[in-house]
UniProtKB/TrEMBL annotation:
InterPro entries: Bact_solute-bd_prot1, SBP. Keywords: Signal, Transport. Residues 1-23 form the signal peptide. PROSITE patterns: PROKAR_LIPOPROTEIN. Belongs to the bacterial solute-binding protein 1 family. This is Sugar ABC transporter substrate-binding protein.
Amino acid sequence: MMRRRTTLLTSCTALALALGATACGGGPVSAGGGDKALSGQTVTVAGVWSGSEQKNFQKVLDAFTAKTGAKTQFVSTGDNVSTVVGSKIEGGNAPDVVMVPQVGVLQQFAQKGWLKPLSPTAQQTIGADYSPVWKKYGSVGGTLYGLYFKAAHKSTVWYSPGALAQAGVKPPKTYDEMLKAGHTVSDSGLAAFAVGGEDGWTLTDWFENIYLSQAGPEKYDALAAHKLKWTDPSVVDALTTLGKLFKDKQLVAGGQKGALNTDFPSSVEKVFGPKPEAGMVYEGDFVAGVAHDQFGKTIGKDANFFPFPAVGGGTAPVVSGGDAAVVLKDGKNAKAGMKLLEYLATPEAAAVWAKAGGFLSPNKKLDPASYGDDVTRATAKSLIDAGDSVRFDMSDQAPAAFGGTKGAGEWKLLQDFLRDPSDPKGTAAKLESAAAKAYQG
């Protein structure tokens, strides 16, 4: 689903701290030290990325090679990382590093005993340069296994500035104001929202933002861990709030049926394509990449965002996702793999992809000037400023059978709810039944 080498480390001391090396005194240096200490070695990296994401990550790997001499080989796994990596381990061909896109998968790998704990150098860098929440999501049983290299900001509502200007509305501050603005946009000739309901994961993101703001972070954490049942009144309340949007034909382009026949890229097209049908589309920061790359929109001029607004008197939510680098015990070159991970933990590595675009880093030390435009800088600042109030995508924390499988679990049940939002309590009961089965399994 889905992520400048200059001015980044302001002193030799910072470089030495970030890389665990005596970079200024002429002694031995580890990853990123520039002495080609890993020449002749190859690090194999597996991840879900393909297309432009894979090309941009390769630039980061090439920078690692330039500094250390280690060659790299990237293997695209497709969406089912767990199955592909498991089969490679069983076949004696485990990669050294895996970029894991879901907390649930990271936990699964750790529980199977596949992962090496992060090195002291990596742990030191993460402790100094990242908000503690990222350490929490990279840890299992108190042991830190994962470094979050690429983040997603999933609390952004993207809009056509021209459509909102034509309707005479400004970006709203509350959820109720957003729906009111949506009706005004609709009165001006466009639907308010394009909803990509054919992809069930977009609906989980809608629910998570509403739930985090309306119910609060403690209940969000409890529901994510299934320590709170989906039949809890807070879930019913969030579904009721979401249902009011889903059943309002003025607000949803094509109505419920149209939304169920619209995938995520098409939802972006309905706002930013050649024949606009809606003024706004809710999804993560990656909307900008689609709007720019596929429809030629200038980000900040033809496409912009406002933060997902506060719901029902709560705090505005910040839901995130991300890809964590982990090192496999069974990799043929796990030691060099750990050096790669130490490099990925530095702002220098993050800057390579930030400059290329389509990327956010949770690293607080990354110079905002590394990002290519003001809108991306604003999105990144929002993510960093949220600190420990960031909450990881709830469905990504769940077992895949519940939170990450097409046509099953939460994805299917929220599609059913989009089709008929008349019974939030009944939907909550079905969600609890599916969750209980998946978490037991």
